[in-house]
Amino acid sequence: MNYEKEEFFAPGHGMCAGCAAPIIVRWILKLAGPNTIVTNATGCLEVATTAYPRTSWRVPWIHVAFENAAAVASGIDAAFKAKGEKVNIIAFGGDGGTVDIGMQALSGMVERGHNVLYVLYDNEAYMNTGIQRSGATPWGAWTTTSKVGSANPIGKLRPKKPIAKIIAAHDAPYVATANPAFFNDFKKKVKKALSVEGPKFLHVLSSCTTGWRHDPSKTIEILRLATDTGLFPLYEIENGDFENMRITYKPKKFKPVEEYLKPQGRFRHLFKNPEYIKKLQKDVDEWWAKYGKYYRP
Amino acid sequence: MKVMIRGNESIAYAFKLARVQVVPAYPITPSTLVPEKISEFIANGEMKAEFVPVESEHSAMSAAIGASAKGVRVGTATASQGLALMHEVLFIASGMRLPIVMGIGNRALSAPINIWCDHQDMMSQRDTGWMQFYAESNQEGLDLGIMAFKIAEDERVLLPAMVGIDAFVLTHTVEPVELPEQKDVDDFLGEFVPHYVTLDPQNPATLGSFGFPEHFMEFKYGQWIAMERAKKVIDEVFEEFEERFGRKYMKVYPEFVEDADIILVTMGSMTSTTREFVRRLREQGKKVGLVKLTVFRPFPKEELREILKNAKVVAVVERNISFGFGGAVYAELSSTFSRMKEKPKVVDFIVGLGGRDITFNTLNSVVEIAEKAMHEEVDEVNWIDVNKEAVLKAEGLL
What we know:
- The complex is a heterodimer of chains A (about 300) and B (about 400).
- With about 300 residues, chain A is α/β, with parallel strands linked by helices.
- Chain A contains eleven helices and eight strands.
- In chain A, strands 2-1-3-4-6-5-7-8 form an eight-stranded mixed β-sheet, sandwiched between helices.
- With about 400 residues, chain B is an alpha/beta fold.
- Chain B has two domains: about 1-245, Rossmann fold, CATH 3.40.50; about 255-395, 3-Layer(aba) Sandwich (Rossmann fold).
- In chain B, helix 11 links the parallel strand 14 (about 315-320) and strand 15 (about 345-350).
- In chain B, helix 1 packs across helix 2 (about 35-45), helix 1 packs parallel to helix 6 (about 140-155) and helix 6 crosses helix 8 (about 215-245).
- Chain B is globular and about 70 Å long.
- Chains A and B meet through strand 1, strand 2, helix 3 and helix 5 of A and strand 3, helix 3, helix 4 and strand 9 of B.
- Strand 2 of chain A pairs parallel with strand 9 of chain B, so a sheet runs across the interface.
């Protein structure tokens, strides 16, 4: 059945204009259809879509706490198995709820082999609490807890946690990175994930206008630049087979990282020192030199 | 059928007889045998359930909530640190009104780390909105385990429940237990019907939504009402259980209390020692009675007022401590009496923390102070069987 013309994520929610998360969620639900249960980690998505007594969710939805969406999903999976019923179980978590506080529950869920699609919408900081750095915040980003000042002109001093690789290293049946700006690739990966039995993980980049400090009308443009500069590569890894990892998109001509950094206030300070931009460009170039061979369209 | 089983097996058998459908659990001393036994039942084909061997107690309770929200019967077990790790999620289970049942191997909390019995773990979860039952024996562990489902799932209640069995004294001690027939338990519990909104794709609903100040208190008042209503439901279920299975349960179980000047209030396995002790005192002509508190949440205020009203001294013998005040039962009992014109004097006795034995000597010390309290002032909170001198020296007070 094709449910692309139906809406399971109703309008009227309180997500910010220009937030990428509702785009991601709306389309994942269209691709999953009505026989779906959603569990949601605490975060913007949960808070802004379920202000009692209203809801944006036209599929069954449950929120329990911050760090345990994967554990709640595990219990739902067990209950459906106990009843002998089939259903799509989708867990949505932000980067804080996934790569930091929810890491243990996610690792456990994948190790136990629950039939759950876990979707990380990664806006690269704790946005719901007001832009604090997370394990997914990139090097050089300003946040309210990786502040920029005379003693620290860089902001966050550590790179992003490689969450997709970490989950792939669990030998999960399906792990992919995706970007709503690359819509066909995104759709293909969601469909593929839903068709696979067992735990699957989608790492989706999701811009946050207030945290990234960009114009709300530029969401998709900026997300497109993340991948076209090579900073957020799109790939998939099946059954932990890193040797057969597949990069699903490679820009014909890579754009310089400045193009991605420039429109975002969180990187503004980096432009005071050309070395910082060079460092980020070097990181990207090195990544592609190492992994570019896995581009298998 | 009479079987010889350990307390943990009582909980596991209660889950099996209740036809629990999902058991998410994580091992912790002293309750580890519960998931082990469930795993064994499932492996042998004796029990049809999904066992979820989670990676932490926090995830155990989270998975229990997810499964219960789908509308299946869920049981789990833990103790001590594991229960403390669950703390956050316990509020959510009760706030979402999910009738999960959990066995607790009552054990001390660190530090220092200690695996033996006291009631600090469950007492520390007093305000999480769970019903709390304390078993005196393995038989009670089994019976309360079964009854907990019936009470929790009643549509007038819909609250989760924990059943405490004392670490090692019960969890690891073999006792004869009358195992009810499956058919009789089926008749007693009936088929599981979730009297709440579940995760059902045919009827989509949003569970665990965001509550603003204009709604939050109504949710909490609902839990308050449910806990109040649980008092009557517990009585009904206890009565029906007695009719069907012949074993009597009361929220507050009095023995030797008529004409008693001093009444000892106990919980859990210490009750057995205390019963024999009190029986012997009675033989000596001492007017001492015993009250076993089986249900701590909801707190059976009415029964306690009625049963204890004529005592001169109520001696609360308890295995927990709230630093800066006293024992939890002492605090609650004192406030329970606050509205009575004529009320007994309540004296608190902290005993048996971290598995220290509760012996006749312990109880002798308790009764000596209680007798003194009949005519003179005594300390409100009395620590029994403690090397006070060593501690006072270490603290620089001696």
